[in-house]
Amino acid sequence: MTDPRPSDQRAPRPVFTPRFGAGLFARGFLMGAADVVPGVSGGTIAFITGIYEYFINALRSISPAFLGPLLKGRVGESWTEFKAMHWPVLIPVLAGIAVAIVALSKLITGLMVDHPAPTYALFFGLILASAWIPLTRVRTRNVAGFLMLAAAAIGAWTVVGLQPDGIALSVARHDDGASAVLYPGKLRHRNDLDAVIRQRDAAAPAALAVVFDEKGVLDKTPGEKVPNLKVFNDKAALVAWVEQTPQLVVLEEQRAPLWWIFLCGVIAISAMVLPGLSGSFLLLFLGQYHAVFTALHQTVGHVLGFLGRPMDPLSGLTAHAWTADVFFFATFLVGIALGMLAFSRVVGWLFERAHDLTMMALTGLMIGALRLPGAVVLEETGSGRASWAVVIGVALAAGVAVIVLDQVDRRRNSTPSTP
């Protein structure tokens, strides 16, 4: 099969085969898993696994051109236009991304907290080894290209080095006579506790602040002792305490207006399309990372509830009506869809008009993105919480995997083949 490249806007529609679809689904699954992690880009994984240009070209093939003939009653012509889109690429890749985000979002974020050193060492090795791949595709290296590489690297390094202030919280429930303020979500950073205390002081200054620190975040990042604070590390113990304390002020991640959620989707997916820039990381700074994933988990909870499975007791404390959760997350998905379609055309245009500069910029973005996983690995190993042998071994294994995949990709593209 001809390898469609973004530089050819009229690239032939790939032919679907079971092997072709399975390979793309697996790569999409890896992209979705990466997109959950703040600091790691699904675009990087697409580059590593050799489908980045396939994916961009497939996104560019999406067009509303089929609607015109359909509205005029020319169904056959409309169907021809519809089939011309690269569905053999789009369906398996997007399905893999969606399945990974739904199935692995809790697991991956848990690994980031439970085993940060090897997890981020894996990402470091993947990104470092893959940073040279776009560089090898540069046709002419010159001063302008290396200046572009440096600018992109400095920009990504600066953005990744920014620190979010913590979650934004609001009151989901306020019982009369409440003596405790509860945030039932898992603490992910010391800043999250500061946000809880600010809300407690505003809603009920004399109340007991109660938090769920299953991962021991407060033990890893000790700060000043907070008065009138109760910390639960065990979920069953927290559920038992809630059942005995019916009068509560319950906090939840603050949800922004739907228009802002739509824009967050557009911005986040624009970053996810580029190797080296993380959409999840940008969501942290836009203040909607936790709100979006909470809405996703609660939407899944509603679906399982319809199937007869009871909702998690802690999630039930802040659960919205199913229509509110579904509409909130659907708005985010619409932003993602439109942002993906628009930005893929921008990337494709850059490939056509400035191929070498674009490749140099992609190299710089991935180099700059090394700051986040590198900082986590250094912090964990420097404090003695992780072994240098383990993190180096994991990073090397990840790098070798990238090199092997790249060689396979090169051989595949040198002969008629499929991903």
Shape: globular
Instruction: Give the fraction of residues assigned to helices.
Output: 55-70%
Structural class: alpha/beta
Number of helices: 20
**How many structural units, i.e. domains?**
2
Describe the overall structure.
Helix 3 (52-60) crosses helix 6 (87-114), helix 7 packs parallel to helix 20 (388-414) and helix 13 runs parallel beside helix 17. This protein has 2 domains: 18-164 and 331-414, no CATH class; 169-253. Helix content is 65%, strand content 6%. The protein contains 20 helices and 5 strands. Strands 1-5-2-3-4 form a 5-stranded mixed β-sheet. It is of the alpha/beta class. It has helices spanning 18-35, 42-48, 52-60, 67-71, 75-83, 87-114, 116-130, 132-136, 143-161, 190-203, 217-220, 235-244, 258-273, 279-286, 289-306, 313-316, 322-353, 355-368, 371-382, 388-414, and strands at 169-174, 180-186, 208-212, 229-232, 249-253. Residues 1-10 have low confidence and may be disordered.
